[in-house]
Each structure stands twice: as structure tokens, then as C-alpha cells.
Amino acid sequence: GSRPYYARNWFERTFGRVEPWMEMVAAASGADMRPDRGGGGGGGIFPTDGDFNGMRITYNVSGIQLGEFEDVEGFTTRRNYTGTVAPGRITISGSASMQSGWEATLRVLVRAGNASADEDWTIVSPGSQSFEVSIDVPEGANLTFPTPQFVIRLTGRFSTAGAGSTQVSRGLQVGGNLEECADAGEARRAAADAEWRAEVERTLRELGYQQSPAGREVARMQEAARGGAAAWQEYVDERHRELAAQETEAERDFDRLEQALAAGGDVWDNYVRTGDADAPPSRPPLPPEETAQRPTPADPQPADMPGDIGGLQVGTGGEGGRVTGAANHFDRTDGITGVLHYEDKPDGIVAVAIWERDGNELARGERPIGGTGWVSFSIAMQEGRDLPPGNYTLTIVAGDTIIGRKTFTVGGAQG
After folding, report:
1. Which of 40, 53, 190, 334 has the fewest CB atoms inside 10 Å of its own CB, making it the most exposed?
2. The dihedral of CA 191, 193, 199, 202: what is its sign?
3. How far is C-alpha 74 from the geometric centre of its chain's CA atoms?
4. What is the pLDDT of residues 109-140, one digit of tens each?
5. Is residue 102 within 8 Å of 125, Cβ to Cβ?
6. Full-model pTM
7. Helices assigned H by DSSP within 29-127
8. 3-state secondary structure of 228
């Protein structure tokens, strides 16, 4: 609440409120005028010496921790403060005088959080006006946006000399944009966090969450966290034991897959063939009609490679079940993609792609397939390097059957 201020004696009628003068005298005598948590404030006279176009402001600020100020001259001459603010009462008081010109408008504004006050008066020259404007900033108020500030602005209107005189304006202003006091910001954040936690607990109680398995688990976790490092480690170890005992068959299947991938070689081949990485080693068998055509690793010649089967195509790229840049020979490329269309395959069967160059296996990949559709596999070099020249074979096996094969060459080794 702000209110008009009425002078009580001749001193206040002439110079304004007594309190700013008392604080100025105390500060000049070496007293520490800095308050705690953004309270207190300061005051002064602007301009300090003389006046500005007959205008002068005497002011006192409380509830704001004022910092440094800078005086800037211009058509509106300003004293700009820095400072911090915290919850509590903020009061801007003092007086303004106008000794020349026609009249002046006095405006006093103060804003912090959602609290604000903005009042103005008219001063007929020569004359003065006392003021006092206050706001109450509650605990927990957000003092970061909008930016807290205070402004005391005196705008005078004057006429130029001569027959063709016109009206001009000049201004005198004291004010500053403020920051939230560090202690106040920490207290506000702590209060907001406590409020949020209380709201979560209330909602959980209303929903009966504490009585659910998940709710009881959260309670166990919270109790362990409150018990320190040893209690928390004991909780973690216990949960590991519980989860291991509760592992489903699907989770155990995934563990076997992960172990087979890490081992590679014959272990992976056994897993692909049987689903069991511990089964006796064996390569996926080839159909009888294909076995005789299978080249040995010692015979890399293109003419001796088996023929293409299954409609498998290879190219420099692939999208939507089709290859791009399809060919049997590639002068140079950093990658090859193969696409195979299939029909009437059992659901959940795994297609394994085997990439070979000159009879030596380079890489393997696998995809689950089923029904009717298509599957693609790719091989590529890193850092933009080209595939080395040679005779390549891409063979795709599903279960114990070769469902696709494609031979091609890269570089100068054409078949």
C-alpha cells in the first residue's frame, strides 16, 4: 500500500522527509548501512550539486540492497543503480521539486514478483511534491521474472524563448533493475521443492499408490536411501538377487543370444543353428543339390563360384525392398547392399547373411523373418574407404536351407 505523504514540519516542507537525511548523515559518519538479505537500502539527492533545469529529487529506498550507481547525462539525466531484492516490504519515499518552467510530472514505480505499485503526481512550478510508495513481497515469490525494478522519474515541461516559442521536455530519473538476493533465491527454490514433494505424496495417497507393488518398492528404495551408503548398497544387492531369481525364459533366451554374439565363431554358428550356444560345433548344412557346387576356400576364381539362386540382388544401395545401382561388377564402392524377397517362411525364423571375399568369410549378419516379405543386408568400409578388390559372395541361410546367393566382383577381378 502506497499513500500520499504530508509534510509534518518546516524541514520536511523545504527539504523532504527527515529519514533520508538521517541515513545520509549516519553513512557519512562511517556507519555500516548494509542490511541482511536484501533489506535496508539507501538514499540521496540527485543531482548532488545544484539542479537539472530547475529539477531535483531527494529519495530514500528501503527493502532493497542498493549497490553501485552511475550518473548519465542527457535530455533525461539518469542515476542508474544496481542492487538485490528479497521478500519483505519495499518502500520508495522522498520529495521532488520543480523551480522553473511550467510544470512537471512525477512518477514513482516499484515492482518485484507479482507485487507492484505505480503512482504519479503533477507539480506546478515553482513547487515540490513528497511521495511514499510501498509494496509487500511475500515469501517464496519469484523474483527473477519480470525483472524487479524501481523508478523515480520527474519530467518537466518548458517553453523556448521568443515569439514562436514551443514546449520542450527534460527529464530527471533515479532507478535501477534489480536481481534476486542469493539467499532469497535458495529459500524460494527450497520452498518450491518442498511444496512439490508434498503434492506428490498427497496425490500418491489419494490414488492408493503406496499399497501397490510399485508403491511398496518406492518406499523400500526411499528407506534405503535415508539409511546411508551401506543401507543403499544392501538394497541394491538384494534387488539384484531378487531380479535374478525372477528372470523369465525370454530373458534367459536373450542372455544366451548376447553370450553367443560376444563369443562369435563356432559358438555363434551353433546358436544360429540350434538356439543353444553350447551345442556341438557345426556349420549350417547346405542342401544336397548345392553341396557339389560349393567352392572350396582355396579356389577363389570367379568362374568356379556357384551360380546365383533365390533372386538375391546386390547394388550400391537399397530402399523399400529394392536395390539401387544393381550390378554383377563394381569398379569401386565403399559398400554393398543385398535384398532378397521370400515367401511362406515360418514366423520367427532367423535369416543369416554370410559375406565372403575370395573364399574367406568377412562378416555375418542376421535378421528375423517370417511369412512373405523381403530382407536386406549391407557391408561397408569405414571412413569412406572402398571395398578391396576381389570376388565376393553373399549367401543367405534360413534354418538349414540356403534361400539366396549372389556372386559379384569389385575392382579389376571380373568373372
Report:
1. 190
2. negative
3. 43
4. 999 989 999 999 999 999 999 999 999 999 88
5. yes
6. 0.41
7. none
8. coil
